[in-house]
Each structure stands twice: as structure tokens, then as C-alpha cells.
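To: structure subgroup
Subject: Chain for Friday's discussion

All,

I'm putting the inputs and outputs inline so they're searchable in the archive.
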Amino acid sequence: MTVRQDTPQAPAATVRATAVAGPAGPATSTGPAARASSAGLAARASGMARRVRDGAAAVRWYVRQVMGDDAYATYAAHQRAVHPGCDVITEREFWRRRHAEQDANPGSRCC
């Protein structure tokens, strides 16, 4: 194969290229450069996977906060930290009281 290459030293130099049989890339190369390249690719992939997991965890946390799914866990942690001598009510009793309070004092909500 002949490739025409324009360089500053020789404006119309012709370079002879050699074709290599088989696919090129990390699958056929086993030298240090190929191993470093595949290690870099693996590091980038694990970094991207970590960012996706972190993003999904952040979205999950946000939705749980907005919907109130972790209200009992927050209540129990608060009770144990601030009022260590007091008993923590059961989760069932917590939700019963919470819904009764919302029904008694509806406040600003859509439903």
C-alpha cells in the first residue's frame, strides 16, 4: 500500500506502509503497552460504573426522602441519639401515629 504524506521536510514524500494480517488492537497485542492500555480501559470502566452506582444511589435517596419511605429510620436514629433513655416505638405504631396526625391536620398537600 502506498500512502502520500505531506511533511515540512519533504512536501511530496511517499511512505511505504506494511499491512498486518489479522485484527489489530489489544486482543492480538500482549506487550507492555497493550497491557497498560487495557488496564487503563478497565480503570475507566470501573470509574464509570462507580459513578453510575453513585448516581443511582443519590436518586434512590432523593426519592425515598420525598416519599417519606425512611421516616421511621430517621425517627429511630434521632430517638436513640438525642433521647437515649427513652423507648423507641415500633414501626407499625410510628406509621399509625403519623397517618393519624396527617389526617387530623392536613396542612398543604394535594390529596
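Points worth raising on Friday:
DSSP finds three helices and two strands in the chain.
Residues 30 and 59 are 41 Å apart (CA to CA).

D.
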